TrEMBL record:
Belongs to the class-I aminoacyl-tRNA synthetase family. GO terms for molecular function: ATP binding; RNA binding; tyrosine-tRNA ligase activity. Its EC number is 6.1.1.1. Pfam families: SYY_C-terminal, tRNA-synt_1b. Keywords: Aminoacyl-tRNA synthetase, ATP-binding, Ligase, Nucleotide-binding, Protein biosynthesis, RNA-binding. This is Tyrosine--tRNA ligase. GO terms for cellular component: cytosol; mitochondrion. It catalyses: tRNA(Tyr) + L-tyrosine + ATP = L-tyrosyl-tRNA(Tyr) + AMP + diphosphate + H(+).
Length: 249
């Protein structure tokens, strides 16, 4: 603060509320050394749903950069906010008139199961950061992941698929005549070889594009198991996803 004041005329330091001690120390140093009035401004900390501070150190930072936090991830962060903070966040992060925010909260009191304020907050912030296209991307990803929408999956770009399933392995496969569900799972290295992999399918642990498949011998069908955009989303169990890109369909 002292260096910036001396060399650049800086008189205001801005920081999170947890930096009050540092800001006060800077204020006292600058005023003592220069006799100039300087100022400190603190802003409220934004915390996670568990009350923890957000940040790089904690590993739970929310970024404006799409490469670090996708529109879908940003949307989901805000849509998961609890009732006790959502009104404050609507006032902090959106340009909605206060009267409209009051109306949103009144409707929420009548129909809390609709999560109206959270959805509006998520939409407004995502649109502000990533534009209308980013908001539509977030909605497509939400429908594909949480509502098993084949239409949403078919409309997704390669970038959206990679953002939505950052940790998911991907494989490029050739569709061979008579290729079935068991062949697909094995070629994608999604199930073990032998009887246990076969049983994984018959037990209902495998779904393709959101549809559960229980017959390992089911032949893959274009438009059902393979979407129009040449992609299949394979899920093993509840959380293990595999992105299959089909070549030369």
């Amino acid at each position: 603060f002292l260096h910036l004041h001396r060399h650049h005329g800086c008189r205001v330091q801005l920081g999170g509320a947890d930096q009050m001690g540092n800001i006060m120390s800077g204020y006292e140093l600058v005023t003592k050394m220069t006799g100039t009035d300087v100022f400190g401004i603190t802003v409220p900390l934004i915390t996670s749903t568990t009350g923890d501070k957000l940040g790089k150190t904690a590993g739970n930072a929310v970024w404006l950069n799409r490469d670090k936090t996708s529109p879908f991830e940003l949307y989901q962060f805000f849509v998961r906010q609890q009732d006790n903070v959502v009104e404050k966040y609507l006032k902090l992060f959106t340009f909605l008139p206060l009267e409209e925010i009051d109306h949103i909260m009144e409707m929420h009191a009548k129909e809390p199961e609709k999560w109206g304020p959270q959805k509006r907050l998520a939409a407004e912030v995502t649109k502000l950061v990533h534009g209308r296209e980013g908001l539509e991307s977030a909605k497509r990803c939400t429908k594909a992941l949480y509502y098993s929408s084949m239409e949403a999956l078919e409309a997704m770009s390669d970038q959206e698929l990679q953002e939505l399933f950052r940790q998911a392995p991907s494989a490029e496969l050739m569709l061979e005549p008579g290729m079935n569900v068991l062949d697909l799972c094995r070629k994608a290295n999604a199930i073990p070889d032998g009887p246990s992999g076969y049983q994984k399918i018959t037990d209902g642990g495998v779904s393709i594009n959101g549809i559960r498949v229980t017959d390992p011998e089911t032949v893959l069908i274009l438009g059902q198991h393979i979407l129009k955009n040449g992609v299949s989303l394979l899920r093993i169990g509840k959380k293990n996803y595999y992105i299959i890109k089909w070549l030369q369909l």
